[in-house]
């Protein structure tokens, strides 16, 4: 059986597995948000960065990509994603219903924020920009994560006003 994964952040530009099909998709009831403090990949315990997470919010929706892994690779992809995404247990692994742009309805794997986890945060955009502008983690600068995600959303024709604002503001702060 094909394993579908919902990409809304770094999975858009760095899935880390062979994608055999990708389709624009929408997840209802969640929004894309820099609401997770990153203490490994894009920050450190002493100077946390921020990464995107799916934050449950009634009436909202998040647009991204449904990424398919072949059935014979499903176990390896799942192991890889768990190692990558569940490094600090701030994400919860969920099966979610996605509406695909081609009309299909599928169930996909997604990583959503645990609002009770210590890494969960709700910050205004200016504070997010200041953190992203300075943080660096094991996978590189927090700015790279923001810039790549914003650029890929734009390439895909997926509007995200908050990410566009953050992209501009962080570039101002780091100029």
UniProtKB/TrEMBL annotation:
GO terms for biological process: glutathione catabolic process. Its EC number is 4.3.2.7. GO terms for cellular component: cytoplasm. Keywords: Lyase. The keyword Cell division does not apply. It holds the Pfam family ChaC. GO terms for molecular function: glutathione specific gamma-glutamylcyclotransferase activity. The keyword Transport does not apply. This is glutathione-specific gamma-glutamylcyclotransferase. It comes from Roseivivax lentus. The lineage of its organism: Bacteria, Pseudomonadati, Pseudomonadota, Alphaproteobacteria, Rhodobacterales.
């Amino acid at each position: 059986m094909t394993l579908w994964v919902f990409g809304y952040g770094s999975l858009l530009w760095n899935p880390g597995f062979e994608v055999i099909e990708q389709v624009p998709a929408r997840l209802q009831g969640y929004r894309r948000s820099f609401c997770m403090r990153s203490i490994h990949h894009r920050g450190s315990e002493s100077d946390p960065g921020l990464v995107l997470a799916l934050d449950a919010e009634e009436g909202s929706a998040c647009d991204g990509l449904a990424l398919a892994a072949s059935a014979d690779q499903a176990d390896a992809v799942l192991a890889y994603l768990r190692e990558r995404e569940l490094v600090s247990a701030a994400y919860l692994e969920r099966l979610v219903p996605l509406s695909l742009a081609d009309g299909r309805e599928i169930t996909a794997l997604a990583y959503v924020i645990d609002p009770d986890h210590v890494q969960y945060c709700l910050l205004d955009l200016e504070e997010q920009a200041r953190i992203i502008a300075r943080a660096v983690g094991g996978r590189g600068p927090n700015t790279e994560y923001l810039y790549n995600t914003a650029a890929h959303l734009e390439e895909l024709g997926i509007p995200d006003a908050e990410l566009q604002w953050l992209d501009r503001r962080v570039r101002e702060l780091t100029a």
